[in-house]
Specification:
Uridine Diphospho-n-acetylenolpyruvylglucosamine Reductase, domain 3, homodimer, 467 residues, 5-stranded antiparallel beta sheet
Chain lengths: 467, 467
Amino acid sequence: MENWQIEQLHTLFPSERFFTSTADLYSYSFDASFGEYIPEVICQPLHVEEISTVVKKANEWKVPIYPRGSATSLSGGPLPVKGGIVLDMSQMKDTLTIDQENMIATVSPGVLTADIHRAAEEVGLFYPPDPSSALISTIGGNLLENSSGPKGLKYGTTKEYVIGLEVVTPTGEIVKTGGKTVKNVTGFDLTRLIVGSEGLLGIVTEATLRLIPKPQAQKTLLATFHSPVDCGKAITEVLRHGVLPAAMELMDNACIRAVEHFQPSGLPIDAGALLILEVDGTDVSTENEIGHCQTICEHAGAISVQVANNEEERAAIWKARKMVSPAVTELGPTKISEDATVPRGKIPEMMERLQEIRERYQLNLVVFGHAGDGNLHPNIITDKRNTEEMKRVEDAVSDIFETAVELGGTLSGEHGIGLLKAPYLEMEYGTAGVNLMKSIKHAWDPNHVLNPGKMFAEEGQTKVVLT
Amino acid sequence: MENWQIEQLHTLFPSERFFTSTADLYSYSFDASFGEYIPEVICQPLHVEEISTVVKKANEWKVPIYPRGSATSLSGGPLPVKGGIVLDMSQMKDTLTIDQENMIATVSPGVLTADIHRAAEEVGLFYPPDPSSALISTIGGNLLENSSGPKGLKYGTTKEYVIGLEVVTPTGEIVKTGGKTVKNVTGFDLTRLIVGSEGLLGIVTEATLRLIPKPQAQKTLLATFHSPVDCGKAITEVLRHGVLPAAMELMDNACIRAVEHFQPSGLPIDAGALLILEVDGTDVSTENEIGHCQTICEHAGAISVQVANNEEERAAIWKARKMVSPAVTELGPTKISEDATVPRGKIPEMMERLQEIRERYQLNLVVFGHAGDGNLHPNIITDKRNTEEMKRVEDAVSDIFETAVELGGTLSGEHGIGLLKAPYLEMEYGTAGVNLMKSIKHAWDPNHVLNPGKMFAEEGQTKVVLT
């Protein structure tokens, strides 16, 4: 950027919401992936008009603009890979309104997702999407990545709960899409196109979310199995019996060991797989269903099945799952967190193939994930300074993607393509499919100012793990 | 079209799937709205490759191509308004596969939606979208219109159940979008963009649908009220108590009278509103919930509440709802069926405003609809040969749309924009929003060959009811 451009931008923002110092620029150079790119200026907008004005300037100057929430992205989504302007949306958080009668929430993009959960639950309502970052990630980021967490099988993904948006387009126009009704077929569905568009098609400045009645009760069990195959059988049988759990969380042996090493709590470190299963509904239905699930797990050959008898025991079970991330992070300095997703019935095969990849490349690979919707999280623990090992990591990641697609699955269930998976997009979508996507991007953003360098690989770009 | 073009098309299809006689062309000139436009040739494709070839020819020749399922559209969706080729998709129905383990269905576009219901239910699964045309409409048409029926509140719309598509693009490319997993954030969500795109962006040649476990039990009640306002209160209270009914069907006094006149069954013709409410779930939960709902209706001032005690009584209640369409059709030669949708809390106000519109224009206006999701179906019964009355109909329809948008709702909940609502699109979306839609259409279909003349009004086109 030219100095005069930075100066002109500065006239639009008070100094406490405009940053150009080296320390500040470095603070905004990373996300939860491992890329590092320095932007040229940071703005913290509070109003849609400010954003519209900045985007119009950026479009006129052909300067890149990178919107960002809490930067918890694991795919490099908000990284300012071409410099330019970072638009820090985290301070735009003045609206969090629950309309109880119509069961909808209206939210600003900087509101934390966990705060939406709390506000809805206070009035007996429920916002099901629950990415594990919910305590610190913003709803704006969640929407643009369509990140959803464990409840996808029963409740669908984030997209299923977004019914209206206010958006600033790549040319700076303010547009409202959808509305306050669950049913809306007026024109093309721009709402769902923008949700999951990773900030390439527009900046969300307000969202209308559909809520549902809060389930009265939850019941939770923890089962361990000799192998992921046994565990997969139990999952299939549960569903075949007409039970639709709110969550089914799977951990492999390496993951169990990591958690037990991190904070010993008596997990069986020889078990091949661990399953946390939760049902929700009424007191009576959850009681019945968890009993069914227990029997099914036992018949599928579970080593142990433990049903939580009270809230304390339930919290203890979930603690094992919630320690996965810190436990895995402690294993090494660099964590590559993938989210390859396969049709649920292919989970046992995918688990076996991941085991083979682990052995082939001699890597520290742990697997956990949302088994109900086939969304696995293979995590490779490495050190990005070890270039020899990182080469093997690259090859392993390629193999993981190829295997997921081969099994009828997808590169990404909820982390997005971002920077890190861009070279693999055509593997899944083919050239014609990617061209349809690019043509929308080009039509809406002819100067490619909104989050450039993401989703679509640059000419000659192959594997970006090492950048 | 030129003769040589028709001859060249004929070489692609055997004569039993290729029609050009006047009688055949007239057979394909209408849908369930009241427009009539004569196409130039009809093809009945059976394979995706045939469609790709026809579309490539049409694109090369700049000849319009109109895909069509069972033509049950109420918005003129498949009408061949600019002549050209009608692609009758109804014979492409060879695939209807239920993958029980992964809870997904793979279907050809010509499969009837009711056949998907049956196939899923045979193995204990459930496909919730249920447009009232389900017995005769094709899944391809349902998807492209995103028509959903009564269960939108609890189960979401058709779009929420489509996870993968095979599509022929407007330039004849064959592209697969999405896949077999509930979670998929690989690239822009082309699947949900194409669902509801009314055949302007692509022709669906195969779809992958998400299924859910079939609820064990249903319980149904019929309640009558002095006024729609009392009925609206009951609906709000039911939801406030944490009950999420599978369906809440509302009929106004004019609608009750029409049904009772059509086939007397003891409906109270003086009641201001009738509500059919159904809950589903387990035996125990439905028993509890229907009891709650009964009490709530009584407290809200219901004149009568009748809970079905067995399947026979349940069928009798639903019969009243299912007779609405034939009963209303009998009232006059032309039925204008709208689907203005408002936030649920605005239903009482919308009902009052519809009553005012009825009186202002002195029209035979009956109202029924899916109260849970705010999706009302105001039907105007008229005679299109009566030009004086049709002028009042036009004005009334305009008023209905304006009122819906003013109350925070939308022009169309599930019938689509098609031909009849095109002039009103900007009223809801504004010029900038409509331009975003048009830019996608133009980028994907530069020669505007796929279903031209729909969704976007032609220059100078205002109200099209009379065309």
